[in-house]
Write a structure and sequence with these properties.
- The protein contains nine helices and seven strands.
- The protein is α/β, with parallel strands linked by helices.
- The radius of gyration is 22 Å and the shape is elongated.
Amino acid sequence: MTTQEHEKLQEQFADPISFEFGLPSVFNKFAEWGFFVKEEIDELAVFRYLYNKDILYSRDCHLIIALSESKEDNANMISRIKEHLAYLCKEGITSLYIEWLGEESDTDIDSYKHIIEEYAKEKCNTAGIDYEQECPLIAPRTFQYTFYNKGVYSGKPTEYSEKNRIGILEPNGIINWDEEKRACQIGNVWFETVMCRDCKHIPLMSLSCQELLQKSHGVCPLKNNTIQPDWVVIQEYEMQKV
């Protein structure tokens, strides 16, 4: 870019409304690249969502399998979960935890467990993935989600309703996410305290933040320097994805 082109762009950026009307195609391209964002959009929330989705919650999976009262639904779900496990191993996760719910609802629970756990063990051993049959209480950077029938739910929902569903587990093992719901969940800070109100660099559905504070004698590592938490997120995202 020449000096003259740079100066021209600076003039256009100084008046984005005129820029959009005068050079709509150029403006739209810069908007696509993220140089212009609507006022009602929280840019940091969008960035945290991309960071959490692509990096933070893509490494360690805490998979919860909730059985229903229907043997047919459970059998169908088990076949989809096997495909999902194969998919996760190809995606390069580092650890996998499996938990079961609703054991009293189906007498075939032991056969389901055997099928899934043996399959998971085989896949994880081949891929060099840390596999645990029980998730520890403290699991940093773990994305916890529940399969119930064909639905996917965040954490351990109180009810398996369409309102709480954040995705559908397809027969090929891929989750068809409701990205709008997912963005609301992993794009924003999920609790409010005086110390953590401005910090967005925290796991979802996990107590690992407490564990960090205990290990560091009550001092958050992100508070020990002048870098703001959001910049820590941005820098790590850029290093790993850009």
